[in-house]
Amino acid sequence: MTNSSNIYSRIAGTGSYLPEKLLTNADLEHMVDTTDEWIFTRTGIRERHLIADDQVTSDLALHAARNAIESANVALTDIDLIIVATTTPDKIFPSTAVILQNKLGISGCPAFDIQAVCSGFVYALATADNFIKSGAAKCALVIGAEAFSRIVDWTDRGNCILWGDGAGAVILQASQEQGVISTHLHADGNYEKMLHVPRKTTGQDTVVMEGNAVFKIAVNTLDAIVDETLTANGLQKSDIDWLVPHQANIRILQATAKKLDMNMDHVVVTVDKHGNTSAASIPLALDVAVRDGRIQRGDMILMEAFGGGFTWGSALIKY
Ligand code: UT7
């Protein structure tokens, strides 16, 4: 959706959090029949962080939220909307967003979760953007947080090597200046069974994925969403300063960069250190590149994601 109002939502601050425990490819060599070389060559991943036994998703979200609130320099009482994108909520209900709200020590503002798996952050950002553009919110806390390791089958070598845990957050504020320029969301439930946790039908409560088939569809779909986003805004590939993609597999990131004629130096890559953290991966990558000084105010950022559902989407942002 492109912006026809004169109110924009703008990223006022970013934050992130990774749990302490590291799981390296060498550790995985002791768990399944794999090698560091296979994992790194096929995915670009070296290591990932795992949530501690006594932590839940809202704990990861809380750390990331506090970082973002501090960097945006807003008061807790300014927050009038909380959206958490997650596939691994603390509980079936209430939402992780409500639990987070309480942990932050605030109450009253709307708080809810969004479930769009790896596309969750883009979905959450688009939702918050629309709240702000319509005047329904002025200062939104938007988070992607996952304890994905809790739904991974640690005996499935074609799958368990991919995932990691973490959280990333942004404060999105109403502004006269351009921020979120457009968002583009899609879903197609025909692909439900290619990437899912089939619990309710079969009792299995871990991820089942046709990895190679998902990979190929992801590359083609992300190609299309790049075209859709550029065309909707009358932009050229060269207008994009930074690609901040969902971190699924380095080979998918490289394919999207190629589509954009973009040097990998302009792609924010964290998959090597974070693995695939599902809904958390984009805000985690954004925070890394903002804090290390690569992304500067005024830069044009393209975010894109693809995940279970299938769901996919993009956001074009002037930082
Ligand atoms: O984030 C949301 C969306 N998810 C994705 O985008 C994930 C997309 N998929 C992928 O990233 C990749 O498909 C994987 C990393 C999951 C798998 O890589 P691949 O290159 O597609 O491998 P494959 O599944 O086609 O397997 C190739 C070979 C097979 O052996 P044979 O049949 O050729 O003898 C697998 O059994 O590699 C074998 N293999 C492994 N070998 C060593 C699969 N996993 C492993 C492993 N270590 N961990």
Please describe what this structure looks like:
It is a single chain. The strands form 4 sheets. This protein has a 5-stranded mixed β-sheet, sandwiched between helices. Helix 3 packs across helix 4. The chain has 2 domains: 8-175, Thiolase/Chalcone synthase (Peroxisomal Thiolase, Chain A, domain 1), CATH 3.40.47.10; 180-318, 3-Layer(aba) Sandwich (Peroxisomal Thiolase, Chain A, domain 1). It has 11 helices and 13 strands. The protein has 319 residues and is of the alpha/beta class. The protein binds oxa(dethia)-CoA. Oxa(dethia)-CoA binds next to helix 2, helix 6, helix 8 and strand 12.
Secondary-structure topology with pairs:
Blueprint (H helix, E strand, L loop, with lengths): L7 E10 L3 E4 H5 L6 H8 L3 E4 L6 H16 L8 E5 L10 H9 L6 E4 L5 H14 L5 E8 L10 H4 L5 E10 L4 E8 L7 E2 L2 H4 L5 E2 L1 H22 L9 E4 L4 H10 L11 H4 L6 H11 L8 E8 L3 E8 L1
Parallel strand pairs: 4-5, 4-6, 11-12
Antiparallel strand pairs: 1-7, 2-3, 6-7, 8-13, 9-10, 12-13
Helix pairs in contact: 3-4, 8-9
Quick description:
Helices cover 34% and strands 24% of the residues. The chain has 319 residues and is of the alpha/beta class. The longest helix has 22 residues, at 211-232.
